[in-house]
Amino acid sequence: MVRIAVDLNRCQGYAQCAFLAPEIFAMHGEEALLYDPEADEAQRAKLAQAAAACPVQAILVDAVDVPAEAVSGAR
Amino acid sequence: MLGDGSLERLKREGRIVVVGASLAGLRAAETLRAEGFVGSLTMIGDEPHEPYDRPPLSKQVLLGRASADHTALPRLRSVEATWRLGVAATGLDMAARRVRLADGDEVPYDRLLIATGVRARPWPHEAEAELDGVFVLRTSDDSAALARRLDAGPKRVLVIGAGFTGSEIASACRERGLAVTVAERGAAPLVGALGGVVGAVAAEMQREHGVDLRCGVMVTALEGDASGRVRAAQLSDGSTVETDVVIVSLGATRNTEWLAGSGLGAGPRGIACDAGCRAFDIRGIVTDDIYAAGDVARCPHPLFGYQFLSLEHWGNAVTQAGIAAHNMLSESTDRIPHLEVPAFWSSQFGVNIKSVGVPSLGTEILVSQGSLKDHRFLGVYGYQGRVIGAVAFDHGRWLPFYQELIETTAPFPPAFPTVDRTSDGQRPLDADFPDPSVPTHGPTVTLGGYAPADRRMTFTPAH
Predict the structure, then answer these.
(1) How far is A50 from chain B (nearest CA, A)?
(2) What is the value of pTM for the model shown?
(3) Which residues of chain A have a CB within 8 Å of the CB of B66?
(4) Dihedrals phi, psi of A43, to nearest 5 degrees
(5) Which of B59, B74, B351 sits opposite A3 (nearest CB)?
(6) Which domains does chain A possess?
(7) Which of B57, B190, B196, B283 could form a disulfide with B143 if both were Cys (CB 3.0 to 4.6 A apart)?
């Protein structure tokens, strides 16, 4: 599982991500981007490609393993 | 403090507590670790969830393209914190440097960051708000519950309030083929944030997509059936809307009640802080050890006459949190000011809306590119002869240029020709913002005057 957020202030709708990882990113109308905030582990390589290809570097992806940073209500 | 080693000691063995475990809180925690803080870090959040992203909750989730409990924020680095989630902070003892929690526990700190954000303003009539089928949308739990109800195929959805959130909800419902009525007290959707000229375009977009948009009306009552399910709404024009889902989108309330009586300069307009994110106490004196960031903070902005701005914007939360964290660990001469130009986005009815600056401060608007009729344009806002904001409808790529005009206080109207200038852009128009004395649900920027701790606001009792 990989978590994703896109800084849509930066995003300018170049749609590179939608070409490289269409399962995760899709244009919605001419300029707006819709994305799945969570991708399967199997999509990690594609996702990394899409993030790297973004001309404005708007795609944020987990840099640390989820289990290592899992949280709980415990002290 | 300078040169006495106390800062090094803080970084090595200090205790930093972050109240608010959402976007601002998480990004601040990451910055603290990135800048070499190896002491103890405690994250306190009233929701039981780890930090998650809210923008998808009114878009992807309602469209059924993502699940509400899977919008957790990506982790940019390890924060190695003690997490106290599902436990609200209930009090602050500034002298003893302790945060009180709802479970009776107390957490001591050397530095405190407050990023408690805002919550959805509920429907004011409590019994009506309790009716089954009445929702607000702010948290992932709200979004999950609403998405479930939309999946069940309601006959009609009523959205109360046509600000950004309300409009996005209406858009998602229409895209799903649901019948939607929107009731807005103002003259048009988005009017509080973008004014009447742009509001008219937003109204046209809603109607073209089949929304039953009613402006200039208030919902006066919600009616339930015998089993406690909402079934109709009464409007101030005497009409009735039969509906089985009501979404109350009347803006947000700042989460500052827990600070009442603490001595911190906090109130209904947020927590007053300086440009370096240090919070003021009620005497108007800046504290050394308490910082604020995100939706709950209000701080003076030099580009906007040093007025105190509260910004309910994603980008503001990220930037301000990073600056607060940096400044917490820095000598006074190494601190950085929060000078970012405000920016936000929304997507609705197939159109991408983006803005920079503070349009709601503008008095005039010039449609410098594109045309209103096509719902594709760039609007520049002017205030006292200078450019103060801009909004783009499917024209986002031009915004960095206009941001520079705002940053350099360029003259309004801009003296140069622009590409794709149409007949709409012949001269500036009255931006047509509602009278500020008339309450509207929806500006995402709140102006709080000049005083560090505006007494009328700061001392308003919580009850």
Answers:
(1) 16
(2) 0.93
(3) 36-38
(4) -95, 5
(5) B74
(6) 2-69 (3.30.70.20)
(7) B57
Give the position of tokens 């309030």: B161
B184-198 mean pLDDT: 95
How many angstroms separate the CA atoms of B246 and B145, rounded? Answer: 12
Chain A residues with beta carbon closer than 8 angstroms to that of B317: none
Our measurement of the distance from residue B205's CA atom to the centroid of its chain's CA atoms, rounded to an integer in Å, reads 23
| Residue B59 in contact with partner chain A when CB distance is under 8 A | yes
Contact A12 B397 (CB under 8 A): yes
Flag the least confident range among A21-35, B8-22, B294-308, B309-323.
B294-308
Match 């799903």 to its residue by tokens. B176
Buried b (16+ CB within 10 A) or exposed e, B165-174: bbbbbbbbbb
Locate B127 and state its tokens: 């019994």
pLDDT at A68: 54
Residue with tokens 């300069």: B265
A34–B50: do the CB atoms touch at under 8 Å? no
Chain B residue numbers with beta carbons less than 8 Å from the beta carbon of A4 are 74
Q: Does B375 touch chain A (CB under 8 A)?
A: no
- Altogether, the residues listed in chain B come to a count of 463
Q: Chain A residue closest to B395 (CA)? A: A31
